[in-house]
Design brief:
Elements lengths: L1 E5 L7 E4 L1 E3 L2 E6 L2 E6 L3 E6 L2 E6 L5 E5 H10 L12 H33 L3 H15 L4 E2 L3 H18 L6 E6 L5 E3 L4 E5 H6 L3 H16 L2 H20 L5 H9 L9 H17 L7 H10 L6 H10 L3 H11 L9 H8 L17
Parallel strand pairs: 10-12
Antiparallel strand pairs: 1-2, 1-8, 3-4, 4-5, 6-7, 7-8, 9-10, 11-12
Helix pairs in contact: 2-7, 4-6, 4-13, 6-9, 6-10, 7-8, 10-12
């Protein structure tokens, strides 16, 4: 039968005559005799033609599908392998299976084990990890200069710690950064940016945000998020090869508040738990609803871009504001008038230029 032969080294295609002899496909090209064992052929259907190749060779034969079918019928069953994917196709299938397995680990396995890992992480180790993350963030999040305001925030953290019965000391600190946010680090540190303090209209609102973050610490949500990031880093190194730095980069990003994302369940727990902490202290828990509602409805204005940063970390803000309103109870303000004035002025002066945080893709 006639076939088109490509030697795998050039783009040239040659017409050759092929026949089956003693279990081999035999043909001549350029005065050279070629013998391809039928049992070792890889057969790939291509519409009205069939492409034949060998596992140990780059050369190809292309024959008419009808001619190939007739040859197969003349030989005994099993002499010619059935048409199917060649090695490139099998490689694609293997890579697809690996990708599916990796996705299963990332989106199912890591979230499933991160909770138990977080609960069994020694508090001393988590505290050391938090100190390390804080050192990494120091140049981007400069502590504010207002000593009276810092003292008021620290005192409020101590009060929350007494009610939370947490293995960590809740240490609240105001920082200057070009972003509106409050976030917790492993080990009990809660950082509040000056821009968020500026947006808070009442002591109750700021207290609710801080209590929310303190609950993340109390329930080990922070460490759970860190374990997810660390696990992803290890998985990346395993997939792309150790020593590439992919895992190390993920570990570093785990220390950044922009990478410590919580599940909706964890956010709901932090909302309810934060309000309960305030109520246990006899403080008003009415500040959470108006603060989140105002953020959710703020779509324009000079603070819109900054607010978007906070909303990206706290999804479904309007719905959560409605739910927190139902749980709200009156109580004493978290700060005296003097403390509140000091907190509002805590970040008015900060030494040195601020460094804008790099945006994650």
């Amino acid at each position: 039968m006639r076939a088109r032969f490509n030697d795998g080294e050039t783009a040239a295609v040659h017409e050759v005559d092929v026949e089956a002899v003693d279990g081999d496909l035999v043909f001549r090209h350029d005065r050279e005799l070629h013998r391809w064992p039928l049992a070792g052929l890889e057969v790939e259907p291509l519409g009205d033609r069939v492409r034949l190749s060998r596992r140990d060779h780059l050369a190809r034969l292309s024959v008419d599908a009808g001619d190939w079918a007739r040859l197969a019928a003349e030989l005994h069953p099993g002499a010619i392998p059935a048409a199917g994917w060649r090695r490139e196709g099998r490689l694609v299938a293997i890579l697809a299976a690996v990708a599916a397995s990796a996705a299963l680990v990332i989106f199912v396995g890591l979230p499933a084990i991160s909770g138990p890992l977080a609960r069994h992480t020694p508090p001393s180790l988590e505290t050391k990890m938090g100190d390390s993350f804080a050192a990494q963030l120091h140049t981007a999040f400069v502590p504010c200069n207002g000593e009276a305001g810092q003292a008021a925030l620290a005192s409020f953290g101590e009060r929350l710690n007494a009610a939370a019965h947490s293995p960590f000391q809740i240490r609240v600190r105001a920082v200057q950064a070009p972003i509106v946010n409050a976030f917790a680090l492993p080990g009990g540190r809660v950082l509040v940016t000056g821009d968020l303090i500026n947006l808070a209209q009442t002591p109750d609102e700021l207290a609710a945000v801080i209590a929310h973050e303190a609950t993340h610490v109390q329930r080990r949500h922070v460490m759970q998020a860190v374990w997810r990031s660390l696990g992803l880093g290890v998985l990346l190194d395993a997939m792309v090869g150790g020593g590439t730095g992919a895992g190390q980069q993920a570990v570093l990003l785990a220390g950044s508040f922009t990478n410590l994302r919580y599940s909706r369940q964890a956010e709901a727990e932090a909302d309810a738990g934060g309000q309960q902490l305030l109520q246990d202290l006899g403080l008003s828990s009415q500040g959470m609803a108006p603060f989140f509602a105002r953020l959710a409805l703020k779509g324009e204005g000079r603070n819109a871009a900054a607010v978007k940063e906070l909303l990206s970390n706290h999804p479904d803000t309007l719905r959560r504001a409605q739910e927190s309103r139902l749980r709200a109870r009156p109580g004493q303000p978290a700060f005296t008038a003097q403390e509140w004035a000091a907190i509002k002025a805590v970040c008015k002066t900060t030494p040195g230029p601020l460094r804008r945080l790099p945006r994650l893709p």
